[in-house]
Amino acid sequence: MHINDAEFFKKLRSTFTIEAHEHLRTISLSLLELEKISIEEDKKIIVETIHREFHSLKGASRAVSMKEIESLCHILENIFSKTKKETLELNEQMFDVFNESIDTIEDILSLNEDEIKDVSVIMGKLKKIECGSLTKNKSIKFDSNVNLNKDIKPDINIKPKYVQEENINNIKDFEDIKIKEDIKTQDSNIIKVNEDRASEIVRVSKSKLDSLLLQGEEMIYAKLTSIQRAKEIKEIKELLDLWKKENDYTFIEMLENNIGTLLKSAENEAKTIETMTDTFIEDIKKIMLLPFSSIIEIFPKMVRDLSRYMGKEIEFISKGTEIEIDRRILEEMKDPFMHIIRNCIDHGIRKFSKGTIKLNIIQVSSDTVKIEISDDGVGIDIEKLKEKAVKNGVLTQGQVNSIDDESAKMLIFKSGISTSDIITDISGRGLGLAIVHEKVQKLEGTISLKSEKEKGTTFTIMLPITISTNRGIIVRVEKHDFVIPTGKVEKVMRVSKDDVEIIENRATILVDGYIIPIVRLKDILEIQDKRIEESSSDVISILVVNDMENKIALSVDEIIIEQEVLVKRFNKQLKKVRNITGATILGSGEVVPILAVNDLIKSSLKNGNKSLNIIDNSEKDIIQSKMIIVVEDSITSRTLLKNILESHGYSVKTAVNGLEGWKLIKSEKFDLVITDVEMPEMDGFELTSKIRNDSEISEIPVILVTSLESREDKERGIDVGASAYIVKSDFRQNNLLETIKRLI
In the prediction, which pLDDT does 75 show? Predict the structure, then answer.
């Protein structure tokens, strides 16, 4: 159906109005809480929320040419940016102005298209706040008795005055279900749909749909319970069969027949409930699906307006927008998509340049969709990104020097980092991509990026198609059961303790080419039952989990099963419980905690040394009792080798040349010698030869670590009796440690 420009713009305005009310609701409630709160850390979180909401609302209002709202949001964003940086202190009078600003924006949203709202007065007040001249009144008196966990009353009126609670035109409370409809005049209570599709279309309240989905998920408990009952009856029948073999009483056959009938009924019932529940939930999920085009239609105009404003000529191309995804995911991702596209416009493509931004949506499986947003611009300046990370205190100079370019690129998703040299109304605050990262993580998705200098940047986002019934892996630790969400688990493995390597004083495992630290789940959760003996098994059960930034391998006593779980989230009073996000009820009736993987990974960083518990204490004692001498004339190489060895539990002594090394070897007991070849006084070849010719120490392993890499040098090393020959140009820490482990 063809839609002319006027109709299209009217539709965009309607979409924007719905979005704006959501932003304003969050801001209003946050302002109320901020005015009362006294805990500094919580104040910072609320200020960050308000700052982000104004940032998002500003971008959306620009896209639909709502200049007055854009101007108000821009200055409000600046004010809360200063508050966040603690260069501006809020007071009571400022909060009055903030709330007046919200009312003004609500009034603007209620106007007809040809009406204009004068915002000069409120803008004047906001500018006084921004420049710090509205600070005469006393600062906010925070009530220390405020209960932060108390629910905020839901009846706060932040809706436009013209909207009535029961008015069918309050389209905020309704959702279009894969349809294009025409809304009649504002006074009408009739919603007209295209007549040729009227028999297929139903307009449903969002709250009813959400309630229906919740009821469907509750049915999972009935399904799991019926499966468990059938299993229990089956176990009784198996016991009865064993008893029957030992006894020959006729009533046993009658009992057996009754239990057999009961078992068959229970199995049929379980199968029926399972089919009904699964079908019901799948149908509800389909109702919740909307095409990407329902939110993407706003982007071409946004790209056009922004590119012209910035003196650029940019074409926007989209593919795959007909693919459908859960409405709730679509709503959450609208702002992140907008932030990425704005980033491409502002950072990717040079001023006075032509360029292209592409949006490509691909359904990669029945439950996953891939979104690629790319530009053909200048790419990401890695060095500038590192510089900003240090300048803004996100990383130290040492940390920046040690990370590779791939890791450095991900810094762009950190709050407060931007490669822009100046802060403008378009960007430069380092906020937008942090919001993107946060939203994708919340939706159990992943985000990555590729960037090549002068060729462009591509953001790749993987998202689930539906907010599906949760699945979890049930694990056992110290006879306690826990659930780890399946979406956070990359791999489930059983590995030998022999495959565990100690690197930088942490137990690690090599998985798909990556070195991943192993941490015992019971150490993170700080549970220890003294009555339970440590397992002596040589095999470890681990789950590799990630939070988009880090990976760890969780060691558990037992991996039980992967299955559907009905998630019961904690209420506000328990939201800050560390490492646990909720609970589930199994078919057996057992209540099991659901673990928060993000918290587990953060907690694991504090348990680094405990990771060595993976290895038997006897093995650690053996390592720590070994004495190694490093003979090396270069202080840099000597210090490096000493640090590597000591960080892995070895005792180390050093010598600056072969002669000093020889004197130490003769006077003290060493388990291994590591020596350079080219040294003054006595070289490594001569030192090795003297060791091999001394009957008291001839069996000590000797490793030559040298820059000499010719075939002749290696053969000479073999001739004098070296146990191993490692060339410095090919030096790898793991190779050295593995060689030492084999020799001693």
Answer: 94
Closest residue by Cα to residue 629 from 518, 526, 711, 744: 744
Q: Are 579 and 554 in contact (CB under 8 A)?
A: no
B/e letters for 234-259, b = 16+ CB within 10 Å, e = fewer, are eeeeeeeeeeeeeeeeeeeeeeeeeb
The contacts of residue 261 (CB under 8 Å, 6+ apart) are none
Q: Tell me which H or E stretch contains 552.
A: strand 551-556
**pLDDT tens-digit readout, 417-473:** 665 544 444 554 455 688 888 888 888 788 888 988 888 999 999 998 887 557 889
CA distance from start to end of the chain: 78
Contacts of 322 (CB under 8 A, 6+ apart): 291, 292, 293
Cα 75 to Cα 70: distance, rounded to the nearest angstrom: 9
Across the 744 residues of the chain, what is the mean pLDDT of every consecutive 10-residue run?
62 82 88 83 90 90 88 94 89 88 91 84 92 62 36 33 33 33 31 35 62 72 77 79 70 74 80 79 78 84 80 90 90 89 84 87 92 92 82 76 78 69 47 80 86 90 80 89 88 85 75 83 80 68 82 90 78 73 80 87 68 52 74 85 82 91 92 90 91 90 86 85 82 78 80
638: nearest Cα among 649, 652, 625:
652
SS3 content of the chain, % helix, strand, coil (to 5): 50, 20, 30
Q: What is the pLDDT of residues 630-641, one digit of tens each?
A: 999 888 788 888
Q: Kindly state the DSSP code that residue 615 receives in the 8-state scheme.
A: S
pTM over 0.70? The answer is: no
Contact criterion met (CB below 8 Å) for 614 and 540 = yes
* Distance (Å, whole) CA 107 – CA 98: 14
Q: What is the DSSP letter of 91?
A: B
The pLDDT assigned to 213 comes to 72
Q: Pick from 182, 170, 232: which is nearest to 206 by CA?
A: 170
CA distance 526 to 323: 46
Q: Tell me the three state secondary structure of residue 68.
A: helix
- Which helix (H) or strand (E) covers residue 491, if one does? strand 489-496
